[in-house]
Write a structure and sequence with these properties.
- There is one protein chain.
- By secondary structure, the chain is mostly helical.
- About 45% of the residues lie in helices and about 10% in strands.
- The strands form three sheets. It has a two-stranded antiparallel sheet. Strands 3-4 form a two-stranded antiparallel ribbon.
- The radius of gyration is 29 Å and the shape is elongated.
Amino acid sequence: MLLLLAGVGAYGWWHWLNGEIAPMATAKPFYVRFDTETPLLNALETLKQGAVVRNPSAMETYAKLNHKRGPIPIGTYQVNAGMTADEVIAALHKPIDQMVRLPETNWSARTANVLEMHGVAKADEYMALVHQPQLFEKDVDFPLPKDSLEGYLYPDTYDLPPLLGAKQTIQKQLKAFQDKVYDKLGKPQDLQRIITIASMVQLEVMKDDERPKVAGVIDNRVAKNMRLQIDATLLYGIQKWRTLTLDDYKNIDSPYNTYTHDGLPPGPICSPSEKSVEAALHPAKHDYLFYVAQPNGYHLFASTLAGHDANIAKARQERKALALQVKP
């Protein structure tokens, strides 16, 4: 009789447990993130708020019976209502990897949009932190500028899972800058000037072997008090990448308009690569003051305005010839 009662009790308990861990009504998948190693019960409590789990304690008991009670590692996880108990527990032990490319040609606002598109962080959250360098001073060993982290947010492909957040993304970028630029290149002095020049080189040059040459042109023009007249700085000033007009060069009122303002722009205009920073550190020595892009991505260089005008005419002829070749 006692065995029968015990059997009935066990059956009743098991029936109750299965009811408490039964899938909830199906709904769309969503992400949940844990920034510290989290006890399973706590994680399940979070999922209850998202209507994924009916009874966290019952689910934890089920996991314990199946030897899957360990803590949940740091990470982002995808779950949805309608998962079985086994699917929920399995999902909580598979953090999501998401590789996101943050290109060298991006300035911070463009990177912010990439991050929001991938669900990593809100664009405005990222930009707010970009303009608070003081919050990251303890994360790096190099001097940060006062007003903006522009130029120091190293471009690379990162594992940036959804919900990671702006702060952790910026910390990853600054650490990469520390490792791949500041430490690797010998902890350069006058860092803000170097990164500002490197950022212009990055946006002006396609071919790595030309980067030192263009850095040399920038140095030569600054030494002669010649305005840089670099389109990329003007585009950064208006925060748009588009074709500029003659009126733009004259009338856009921005400290980044290097057609109307002397010297270097106020700061970097993108996140330069290691190659561009190397070029800014070690510019080529020559007497060139001008360059113009060719259709093949290389440039024609000149030391005089007359030579530059001739190069412009040559580049135009090359573009016309190329257009005729591809014309149907």
